[in-house]
Design brief:
Blueprint lengths: L3 E3 L29 H11 L4 E4 L6 H8 L3 E6 L2 H11 L4 H12 L12 H6 L2 H15 L4 H17 L3 E4 L2 E4 L7 H18 L7 E5 L12 E6 L14 H8 L27 H20 E12 L1 E3 L2 E3 L1 H12 L2 E15 L3 E14 L1
Parallel strand pairs: 1-11, 2-3, 2-7, 3-6, 7-8
Antiparallel strand pairs: 4-5, 8-12, 9-10, 11-12
Helix pairs in contact: 1-2, 3-7, 4-8, 6-7, 7-8, 10-11
The protein binds S-adenosylmethionine (SAM).
Length: 368
């Protein structure tokens, strides 16, 4: 019923991996993210200008890419870490000021501090690394300039995780003791690399900002957006919070955050789409996504283009075609479904071996 086309050559860009060696984009590894090239491809496809919205902005890939292209953008995410990382990437810096700040920080003398942390965090680091994290964290908090403070804090967050025993394995954190470099050395290297990126990164003065917010209730005016480029949490891959629990405990516990439900699809009592024979978790997901798509319709201008990257769900009873169901929802809300672009195809298996269908990762392209 919908026009489905394959562009498997775009598939790798639906993951964060190509961003891993991209200046600025690589300031924080976000497994759930997509790559800048996907955003560039969509901007070219849409011929976008005006205001681009990403209501699930994660660590700001859409926003940074739009800024590079001279296009204004706005992002929302429920995760304070994601919003923090996005904004550190988006700000403009004076490299000399940053260099002075890094020099000042690296001169800090070690003083033993007692800090209360969970037993899991204690297991995640050697005693020496953890002691150093506290010393540098306190020193960074004493920097008066918020922009500089946040830049240094992101560097510390990265360096700390590189000096940890943690292995991020899907949505699980595993601890594996191994030799780790001294934190001070890693921090200096990380911050100098970030400074080098600031000096060489080609960007523009286009406006870009990430805000804490819920995609189901956007704090935005009606008909204010020219294009949307986004990727919501995927069906049955919706647990984000645990993967970043160490960063949250060490670097964000002291920060005030707005408490909102942290994911899409948690209310499994939802009776939405009851006539579709879907597992409760899928019903909950589509109920929330229905709210999101209504919001997108409200904030989009007439003629606005929307690209939503989603993955189908793999359940014991078969594949749930999120791309088709979300297209149906979008159509019922008033969008025209231009096409579904298939980016990746994978086997959905039962008990790891029995193939029960193919799951697609797709980009749904809509016009208001
Ligand atoms: C697939 S990731 C998007 C990653 C992003 N494209 C990037 O490159 O970094 C989905 C994001 O949605 C966020 N999220 C989950 N529920 C949300 C909600 N109700 N409103 C806004 N953001 C939400 C998660 O914190 C996560 O960062």
């Amino acid at each position: 019923m919908y026009k489905i086309v394959e562009k498997l050559e775009w598939g790798p860009f639906a993951t964060f991996i190509p961003n891993k060696h991209e200046p600025v984009y690589d300031w924080f590894y976000y497994k759930e993210g997509f790559s800048k090239q996907l955003v560039f491809n969509v901007l070219d496809m849409f011929g976008a200008n005006g205001l681009v919205l990403d209501p699930f902005c994660g660590v700001g890939t859409t926003l940074v890419a739009c800024k590079q292209r001279g296009i204004d953008s706005l992002g929302f995410d429920v995760s304070p870490i994601a919003v923090f990382v996005s904004n550190v990437k988006l700000r403009e810096y004076d490299p000399d000021e940053l260099f002075q700040a890094i020099k000042r920080l690296m001169k800090i003398k070690f003083v033993k501090k007692e800090c209360d942390v969970s037993s899991f965090v204690k297991k995640a680091f050697s005693k020496y690394v953890l002691d150093d994290i506290f010393v540098f964290r306190d020193a960074i908090m004493r920097f008066e300039d918020e922009k500089i403070r946040d830049f240094l804090l992101l560097g510390l967050m990265n360096a700390a995780m590189k000096c940890s025993y943690v292995i991020k394995d899907g949505s699980v954190l595993r601890i594996k003791k191994k030799p780790v470099p001294p934190l001070r050395k890693m921090l200096r290297r990380t911050l100098m690399k970030m400074l080098h990126d600031v000096k060489t990164f080609e960007t523009t003065e286009a406006k870009a900002e990430a805000r804490i917010g819920d995609a189901r209730m956007l704090d935005m005016e009606d008909e204010s957006v020219d294009a949307v480029i986004t990727s919501p949490p995927y069906l049955n891959k919706i647990e984000y919070t645990r993967v970043y629990s160490i960063e949250t405990e060490l670097f964000f516990k002291h920060m005030k955050t707005t408490a909102i439900r942290s994911a899409i699809g948690l209310d499994t009592t939802a009776d939405f789409l009851v006539n579709k024979d879907l597992p409760p978790i899928a019903r909950a997901y589509f109920k929330d996504m229905d709210m999101v798509i209504h919001e997108l319709y409200r904030v989009c201008k007439q003629g606005a283009k929307v690209a939503i990257v989603v993955g189908n769900g793999c359940f014991p009873d078969g594949v749930v075609e999120s791309d088709i169901i979300l297209s149906e929802i979008a159509e019922s809300v008033g969008f025209a479904v231009d096409r579904i672009i298939v980016l990746n195809k994978r086997w959905c298996t039962k008990q790891r071996t029995k193939k029960i269908g193919i799951t697609r990762e797709s980009m749904i392209v809509l016009t208001k």
